[in-house]
């Protein structure tokens, strides 16, 4: 997993630029021996800015950028000339990224393509001595120093943005379903934890509409305490308004499996229980009507459910209709 190209949590050290100092200068030329103060202001220090980029889906490009320093502002100079502002540093991140400044706990969230937010402001430039001239002090010797920039470690955390999140134990059939209803090609194999990072796919729907589905790493009992893939999996569910629970038809106890999954969400974040839930019984091509009736009696009456088979494509059209209805109501 360490060698995966999907990086969703990273820490970097950031420092915004210091403001330039104001100038303490007096007008002097061949015509003016004792001119008044003409010291200019210092320039602003460079900001550190986060910018959303829809073409990025991981924080991998920041893996080796451990230190990010913005440029300092230029000092003011004579003739009331203001120093240049420090060059801003723009850090491009995928949509759904949350940056937390560890020093203050301040969080900055990026949700839209092209959206820019200042993560750390550069220090203000100091005022030159021209600002401090008064009728009683026409030759001020004082000019302000520039303000220092901010510095802190910053945690960048990516939470996948998708309309529907697929929730289920390892080998529940999530990756197979994603590969059938979208153009995504996740790894599929007959062993646990085939999916080690979120996989996204766009589901084409009627009248050229579409919605995004995320195949998330399989959950196990105790994931909220960090077992299995633990929080690497659970953090991404927070972004999905609809959760589709996949329970295989050959499960020993369908109701218990759903309750375990639901409890892990609750243990991680009780607010996840406020999302819209759907249940899909996967691999249902092996069921007859009698077995379906028996399984239906186990499932919660207040949560919509559907029987599907990714292999035979049984119930997939109805599943899309059900998901679209939940997303738009």
Automatic annotation (TrEMBL):
Residues annotated as binding GTP: 168-175, 193-197, 215-218, 282-285, 309-311
This protein's GO CC annotations: cytoplasm
Subcellular location: Cytoplasm
Main location as per UniProt: cytoplasm
Record's keyword annotation contains Zinc: no
Assembly with partners or alone: Monomer.
Protein name: GTPase Obg
Gene coding for it: obgE
């Amino acid at each position: 997993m360490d060698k995966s190209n999907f990086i969703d949590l990273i820490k970097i050290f950031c420092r915004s630029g210091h403001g330039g100092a104001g100038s303490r200068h007096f007008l002097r030329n061949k015509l003016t021996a004792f001119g008044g103060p003409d010291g200019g202001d210092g320039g602003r220090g460079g900001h550190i800015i986060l910018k959303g980029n829809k073409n990025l889906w991981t924080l991998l490009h920041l893996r080796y950028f451990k230190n990010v320093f913005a440029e300092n502002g230029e000092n003011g100079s004579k003739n009331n000339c203001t120093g240049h502002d420090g060059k801003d540093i723009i850090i491009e991140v995928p949509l759904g990224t949350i940056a937390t400044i560890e020093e203050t706990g301040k969080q900055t969230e990026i949700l839209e393509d092209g959206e820019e937010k200042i993560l750390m402001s550069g220090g203000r430039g100091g005022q030159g001595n021209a600002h401090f001239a008064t009728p009683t002090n026409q030759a001020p010797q004082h000019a302000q120093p520039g303000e220092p920039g901010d510095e802190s470690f910053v945690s960048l955390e990516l939470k996948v943005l998708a309309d529907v999140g697929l929730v289920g134990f390892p080998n529940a059939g999530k990756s197979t379903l994603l590969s059938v209803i979208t153009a995504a090609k996740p790894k599929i194999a007959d062993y646990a934890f085939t999916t080690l990072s979120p996989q996204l796919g766009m589901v084409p729907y009627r009248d050229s509409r579409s919605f995004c589905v995320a195949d998330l790493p399989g959950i196990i009992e105790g994931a909220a305490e960090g077992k299995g893939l633990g929080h690497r999996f659970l953090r991404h569910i927070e972004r999905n308004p609809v959760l589709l629970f996949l329970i295989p038809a050959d499960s020993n106890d369908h109701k218990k499996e759903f309750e375990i999954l639901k409890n892990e969400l609750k243990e991680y974040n009780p607010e996840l229980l406020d999302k819209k839930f759907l249940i899909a019984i996967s691999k249902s091509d092996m069921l007859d009507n009698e077995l379906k009736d028996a399984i239906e009696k186990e499932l919660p009456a207040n949560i919509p459910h559907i029987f599907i088979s990714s292999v035979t494509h049984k119930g997939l059209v109805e599943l899309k209709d059900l998901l679209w209805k939940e997303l738009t109501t």
